[in-house]
Amino acid sequence: GFMTRHERKLFDDLKSPHLKYWVPFVWFGNLASKARKEGRIRDSVDLQTLMNEMNKYRSWCSLLFGYDWVGIPLVYTQVVTLAVYTFFFACLIGRQFLDTDQGYQGHDLDIYIPIFTLLQFFFYAGWLKV
């Protein structure tokens, strides 16, 4: 609903090896200049404000395109995987219930199934896989 069918056809027919996010900005700039010449925009300050805001938005889109252009290096994925598994192992040991009133010799680990730690691990591991 943002483009007419004719504009959509022009957009689709435009050949570009990269994303075409910039095309609507060019159209907007041309239409704003035309509106100023026709008197629909009465003041040049208003046109300048419109163009400044459009350029700001376009630069944000360009920055986002730059983030998409550069992939995450494989070492980051490996570091995060190692961090998740190390955190889970530390939680398994650190979240054990020790009742000191029971008089355990040397405060040995009390074996039980840490349900919430397992749920947390499944959440982090699932998030990592996504």
UniProtKB/TrEMBL annotation:
Entry GO MF terms: chloride channel activity
Pfam families reported in the protein's UniProt record: Bestrophin
Residues making up the signal peptide according to the UniProt record: none
Chief subcellular location: membrane
Localisation per UniProt entry: Cell membrane; Membrane
Record keywords: Cell membrane, Chloride, Chloride channel, Ion channel, Ion transport, Membrane, Transmembrane, Transmembrane helix, Transport
GO cellular component term of the entry, any: chloride channel complex
Catalytic activity, reaction form: chloride(in) = chloride(out)
Spans through the membrane: 82-98, 110-127
Membrane topology: Multi-pass membrane protein
Family per similarity comment: Belongs to the anion channel-forming bestrophin (TC 1.A.46) family. Calcium-sensitive chloride channel subfamily.
Reported function: Forms chloride channels.
Designated name of the protein: Bestrophin homolog
Annotated organism of origin: Falcunculus frontatus
